[in-house]
Design goal:
single chain; alpha+beta; six-stranded antiparallel beta sheet; about 40% helix; about 10% strand
Amino acid sequence: MADDVRQDEEFSGTKVVEERHRIDEISLGHWMREHVEGYDGPLAVLQFKGGQSNPTYRLNTPERSYVMRRKPFGKLLPSAHAVDREFRVISALGKQGFPVARAYALCTDDSVIGSSFYIMSMEEGRVFWNPTLPAQAAEARRQIFTSKIETLAKLHMHDPNKIGLADFGKRGNYFARQIARWTKQYRASQTQYIPEVEKLIEWLPKTVPEQTRVSIVHGDYRLDNMIFHPTEPRAIAVLDWELSTLGDPLADFTYLLMQWIMPGLKAADLKALNLPTMEEAAEIYCDYTGAALPDLNWYFSYNLFRLVGIMQGIAGRIREGTAASAKAIESAKRTVPLAKASWDYAKKAGAM
């Protein structure tokens, strides 16, 4: 258990900014003075330990702290690292009382620090990296999971047309678009030939389920992309909106349920830990939204394929020298196992 608790500590918190992620702090301070309400320096910059995509910084001032997310430097895949979209969605959701950080300002002028970035509030709380929540009391574990699931349900109940996000994503079948997108991203970053991926690229587009609802989709909704209250078992901010768009809420919902088939919860004694089963988690979400639970095999295959695309992208960034975390190499090694697991679920869904 001590090792598990240390995992939360290892990925949480800040560190000195890595040399490759250094920015012009004086230029940033001047820009914030002009564009961030209430800002007053001097500015001290640290880098968050977690994350492998958009580099994220803690900006400390005598009065308060902020968070900055920016695009990585260097060659990037098309449409990747769209910090302007992150800023737009948290701005819209924050106005509805949804738990997100406060969006202060967006900068698309690369001359300030070398890339686009945005500034948001620093939400003080807890981030849990280990889904078994080893340091929490049994009662709190279930409450944390319930808060996580209900928060996703609340997101999916917002009508994009009513909160200024009607054009936040393309119309048409979300899964078809996503399969095409991640196939393209995979090809752009491809470093090896994986037979299972080739079969998935052929099979998934032919078997896409019908879409019946459109909502805001987070795209990477998981426990460690949330901040919980410092002492209470409730979510106060959902983070990392880089992959958010308009789409089928079943994508987020089934991605959440995958937690129970992935390392972490797959072999956990849920009853002893007082954690909900996959069926109980689904019931919480479905009771809140009125959604029906689909046959999960196709969706699990799709979600794993999508992870393959993401991990291959990380592998590509290692090759290009723009990966944002030392953990990137470890993540890239997961590409082949994820591809095999995705094809296993595809076969359960009828693939030959």
